[in-house]
Structures are given as structure tokens and as C-alpha cells.
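pinging the channel bc i need a second pair of eyes. not urgent but kinda urgent?? the chain im working w is below, pasted from the shared doc
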Amino acid sequence: MSLLKRNRVDIKLLLNPVHFLSLGFGAGLSPYAPGTAGTLVAIPVYWLMASLAPIPYLLVVLGLFLAGVVLCQITTERLGSHDHSAIVWDEIVGYLLTMFMVPFDWRWAILGFFLFRLFDVWKPWPVDVLDRKVHGGLGIMLDDVGAAVYSALSLQVILFGVSFI
């Protein structure tokens, strides 16, 4: 394999802004755990957004989700593979949704990271159904939103428990 290829994706794709974004600014080209690398990229994005009030925060996440449907669709067509592992925009949006209404603190950021990765890999029902039945850019985005809902709910339960201590 040529040195210009990582994770079976030509790094020249990063020259195209659509692919640059859908590949998580290049994080998706990681030869090891590209989804985890994509989620790591989301942490500084979260830190930039953490000071937003809840409604603007959700509106930004919604905008990133809608953009992701288009971005991921274009990149999946270019790569000729349904939900190629190098496409990690969905992990970025999923992590941002996970962190909705969570205190801005590195410990919560790390816990959110691990919970999101757990649910994204595990894909409990109905996330697994979304992953199997919905295809294209929308399908790529929806299964991570589902994992984010589980992660966000778990974080809120933990936060609620901590508030009693």
C-alpha cells in the first residue's frame, strides 16, 4: 500500500472540504480506531461550544447534523462503501449531543467520551435497527444520534445522582 493511503482511503480526499469535514479533519484516517479518533476531535469542538445557552447549543448541533447528512452522503458515494469507518463526522455530532446540558469540566468531558464510545460500539436497540435499516448520509448520522441519546441520558442520571451527594 502506498504511503499516500491510510485506512484504505487516499489522503488526497482531505483536499476537498466536504471530505475533509466528513473524515473529521483527517481523524478518520487513523489506522487504529478511527471512530475513537473522530470522537477525540469532538472534544475541542465541545469546549468551544460549551458556553452556549441550551437552545443555541442545540441549534448548532442540529445544523451540524443536517450538514452531516449531506457531507456523509457525498463521501460515502465517493468511497463506494456504506458507512466507511473513515467517515467520523457522525461521531463528532454524536459526542456534541452527548454533552448537551453537561457541566463544563474535563471529568464530565471524559466520562461523556467513554459513554458515547460504549453506546456507539454496542448499538443497543433501536440504534442497531437504525444502523441496519437506514442507509446513506441519514443512516450514518442517525445511529450515532441514537448512541448519543443513550449516552446523554446516562450522563444526566449520573449528574442527578451526584447532585444528591
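so The longest helix spans residues 136-163. and Helices lie at 17-22, 34-49, 54-79, 89-98, 106-122, 127-133, 136-163. — does that match what u expected or am i reading it wrong
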